[in-house]
Design a protein that fits this description.
Number of strands: 8
Shape: elongated
Number of helices: 9
Radius of gyration: 22 Å
Helix content: 25-40%
Largest sheet: 4 strands, parallel
Strand order of the largest sheet: 2-1-3-4
Structural class: alpha/beta
CATH class of the domain at 108-229: Alpha Beta
CATH architecture of the domain at 108-229: 3-Layer(aba) Sandwich
Strand content: 5-15%
Distance between the termini: 74 Å
Amino acid sequence: MTKIGVMVCGHGSRDEGAVREFESVARGIRERMPQYDVDSGFLEFATPIIRDGLDRLREQNNKVVLAIPGMLFAAGHAKNDIPSVLNTYEAQHPGMEIRYGRELGIDSKLIKAASARIEEALAQAGGDVAREETLLMVVGRGASDPDANSNVSKVMRMLWEGFGFGWGETCYSGVTFPLVEPGLEHAAKLGYKRIVVFPYFLFTGILVKRIYDYTDMVAARHPEIEFIKASYLSDHPQVLDSFAERVQEILDGENLMNCKLCKYREQILGFDAEVGLPQESHHHHVEGIGTGTAEHSHDHAHSHDHEHSHGHDHGHSHDHGHGHGHGNGHDHHHHPYPHADHPLGPKSMKKAAG
C-alpha cells in the first residue's frame, strides 16, 4: 500500500509568534488525519523551508505527498512560488508524487471561526449596546488586485448580514485603500456607538499588531465611541477543520465550485434555518526561494500584494427577499429573512412610501 504524507506550505514570517502559530496547522491536521505523516515548511523568512519538510516525508518512505498552501487566499505565493518549489522537488526525486491542493478561500467554516472571534470580543466587552448601534470593521491584508480585495468585502458582508450589525466596513493593512487609520476615521463619522475591529488574518505578526495600534490611535481621538479589538482567526478548530478538508479534497477530487457558501447546503451565519430547503426557482425560467538563514536578510522591497482568490460563483436565483407579487394566483413563498426589521433594510422605504 502506497504511503501518503501531508505537507503544509507556509509563506513564513520574521515574527516568532506567527511561526509558532503556523505550527498549529500541521498539528491540527495530525490530530484529524492520524493515518498520515504531516510536516510543514516555509517559503522565506523562517525555517524549516519547504524542501526540508519534503525531505523528512521522503525519509519516512512517503511515496505520495498531499501539499496544501497554508494561506487564506491564493495569489503569487500560492499560485507560483509554492508550485515552483514542489515541481522542482518532484523532478529531482522521481520516486515521489506531489499533489497540490487549494487555499482556504471563502468557506463556511472560516465564516464560523470569524463569527466566533467576534462573539468572543462582544462577550468580553459586555454592555448593552445593540447590534444595530454597532459597526463592524473587517481588516484584510490588502493587495493590488481588486478581486483579492473584494474577497475581504465578501467576508465582511457575510459577517455583517449574519450578525445584523448596524453597518459594515472593510479596510486593509497595506497596498490598497482604505488603510486602517483612514478607514476607521471614516467609520467614526457614521454615528455608531461601538466599532468592532476584526483582522481577517490567520496568524499574528507585524500587520496584525499594527491594526490594533491604529485602532488605539483612532479610539483616543473619539472617546465617544467604544472600539473593540476582536482576535484574528488563529488556530480556531473550524480553521483547522478547513485545512484538513483541503487535504481530503486532493484525494477526493472534489468539485471546487463555490457551492460551499450556498445557504441551502451549509449553516451560514444568520441563515441556519434554511439548510436543506429545496433549491427552486421562484420565477420558473455562479518558491520563491525559502531562506530562513542569517546570510539572506531579504532586504529588498517586497510588497506582498498577493491575496487573490479565484473561486467560481454560480448564480443560484434562490433568495430575492423583495416580496413581489406575480399576480398569477400561484403560492409564492420566501423564507423569512432574519434581519427583515433592520433599520436600513426594507422598513426604511415605508417612510418614503408614506
